[in-house]
Amino acid sequence: MAIVAQTSKFAKFARPVLAWCVGLFFFFPIFWMVLTSFKTDADAVKPAFLLFFTPTLENYLNMTENYDYWRFAQNSAITAISATFFNLIVGIPAAYAMAFNPSKATKDVLMWMLSTKMLPAAAVLYPMIFLAKGLGLYDTHILVITVVSLINLPLAIWMLFTYFKEIPKDIIEAGQMDGVNTWGEIKEILVPLAWGGIVSTALLIFIFCWNEAYWTVRLTTIDAATLSKLIEGNRAPEGLFFGRLSAVSTAAVGPIVVLGWFCQKQLVKGLTFGAVK
Amino acid sequence: MSDRSLPRLLQTPAVLLLLVWMLVPLSMTLYFSFIRYVLNSLRRPEWTKPAISNWRGFGNYEFVLNNKDFLLAIQNSLLIVCSIIILTVVLGVFIAVLINKSFPGQGIVRVLLISPFFVMPAVNAVLWINMILDPVLGLQGLAIEGLNQLIENLQNTPLLGNFFSLWPEFEPISFRATQTSAYAVIMMVTWQWTPFAVLIFMTSLQSEDIQQKEAAILDGAGAWSQFRFLTLPHLGRPIAIVVMIQAIFHLSLYAEIEIVSRGNGNKNLPYLIGEFANNNIGAASATGIIAVILANIVAIFLLRMLGKTLME
Amino acid sequence: MGRIVLDKVTKSFGETQVIPPLNLTIEEGEFAVFVGPSGCGKSTLLRMIAGLEDLTSGELHIDGADMTAVSPSKRGLAMVFQSYALYPHMSVRKNIGFPLRMEGMSKAEIDEKVNAAAKSLNLLNYLERKPAALSGGQRQRVAIGRAIVRNPKAFLFDEPLSNLDAALRVGMRLEISEMHKRMQNTMIYVTHDQVEAMTMADKIVVLQGGCIEQVGSPLELYKTPKNLFVAGFIGSPKMNFSQGEEASRRGAATIGIRPEHIDVLSEAGIWHGTVGVAEHLGSDTFLHVHDTGLADSITIRAPGDVNFKYGDKISLSPREDVIHKFDAQGQRIE
Do A29 and B132 touch (CB under 8 A)? Predict the structure, then answer.
């Protein structure tokens, strides 16, 4: 991709330098957080810009022993995996219907689904708590999984729809001529050809489900509480617990950031509904 | 085609679920907004249970609209969302153009750049407000202190010292104050979402027509002209998409606001709802309905404007 | 098996009617070619027969049974697509066997039929490959194989050779023709290339704007085109048309004469002109002649060793018995 005779010597030098600065700048807070998680709480607030210190695992040990970390982590995983699974089960048929058999209303339905995400959660918080308590579902996995799924369902359908639409129309028609029924179409043609898209959607939805904090905090107390609750509980330190805070944060965030590294391409494709190539 | 109906039916579960998800809680909120409903009341215990006999009509709405915080919350919501969108788009475009051409380590820089997007919003807020922006113990505080230290040292040098002695001592900014906490929120969310914009724009830039650029160069276009007349229009659609997606996500910003501004008077609409919900469910519901109406107006506006670009 | 009847069939997309009421019968075992310029509706018509497009009105009968509302998979037809539409994730064997699997045949039977089809199409060595590892011509054969195994009532071809390069096209054309002679199935073939139409068809259906201009055998269309459009469409290079004195002298509004029906070797021709560009192909020479008074330019096909050059004067002797006459509405006058 070289447009020759364009770059001045200066630009050739300045560009990578600038780019690296920007990259490091953006990554720095994360780096700092991870670094701090290995410091003792005292070290963490030493006035000096401390890069050299004796690393310690005490924060992590503390966290896993005292804070019941594994329970929260397990709940986060259960919630995210189940919600992702549910979204795929419901979303694939829906996206299939909209991509392969569109009607005049399809476009409107898709737009409406997207608009449900604009609903400020706070507006329906109290009715939800009311319903949850009334149905005896407060602080249960079922409730949390359902809610977290529904929040992300529009996104899942949009992403799947985008990937399905990319399957060339004549392969579908060839299938029709060859005698596939609806189930055959999904199983033999759709899923194998859109497999990459389905995996990407699953990954992204998983990330969003894992990161979900509003409902997971307010609809749970103990049984179904996820890592977001752990963060909430730790969020008002008076400056003395940076080490601990960083450890909890890193543990909650780490795996997801790494996962995100692996699916950047899919992220773009899915989230922009395929409109950006 | 006679067997088109089965496939169409397959979308029913999804549609039904979302419909129920939207309508049931929403209609309850609507109901609550028209009655007196509080969590604790010494004077009027009958108001602690939702009942049609507590009908208040538009009383809750009047209360909310006249509340001094209401206008502030709306203004804040708009300020925060608009600032974030503008900042992320501008930064996103420039950074995308910057790192688009290959250079050693481009892959790593990309990875570093997109990391903030995957951080949990709650962690994001906690990280920034405590560890970075805290005036005393956070990096900001340390930086300012360091700066002051540096200036002090410079003040002691011969000759130059006189120049520097005119400089004031810098005060670290507390980002927990009412006004500044809005800036803190803008900063942290911009940090988190600029990578998203960069990714989108970078991907789009990769489909730029090289031949068009070469023709422009032959016509004598310099770097800036190329940017203005070729690159920017090409990015038109992705920018629209980025704006739309961010509007969707940021209008309901909650975690960051709550963590940063707890109790200091800075609030946006969702936070205001939360505040009311501490006791006055009726008022909270009314505010909620207002927020929904506003969100829908924005949604219709945006989707009409940008939806066409998406659906072609 | 394989008699297809279209009865007063129409097609509209929204408000626009693209095919006004149309009647057509394709007999058992016929090789029928739908030909016409882009947008004439030939592909749409084919897809309507296949069931991939609905009929807006009218009826479709296959072997006497009303198939108007029946889904594509149940019509007993097979289609070969322009882009081949092979399943990219399946091997050649699985691609060809797919329709049989959908029918529920046993594995042994499927293998037998797939092998037979692959043998007849020279694909035995490629059975385990995926489409991406095949050349264009091979992919074309797999698409045909997939159609053959079903033993359909009729084969539908939608511009199957358009994506092949010129040399391959000629070869595949012969193969398809041979296939037809061997198998005797009904075949409906859509193309915009009139050479394919002329060389392969038993019956050509010329379409324009959704309407059938003429139906007939290749030679019929060549010798007695019913109107100006068909006359100009069939035959390459195009027929020469002239309005004016020569036309009115013969009692027509327009006359037409094919390039191969004008002799240039005699000095005593009735028309005269100046040679413009002369295209020498070795086997033939195409002369573009101006200033004849008939039209801006007359194209003539002359023997290959003729050596007229740019600017030469030339004398033209048309064969009177094959001058076509058309009236003011463009219809043929006998």
Answer: yes
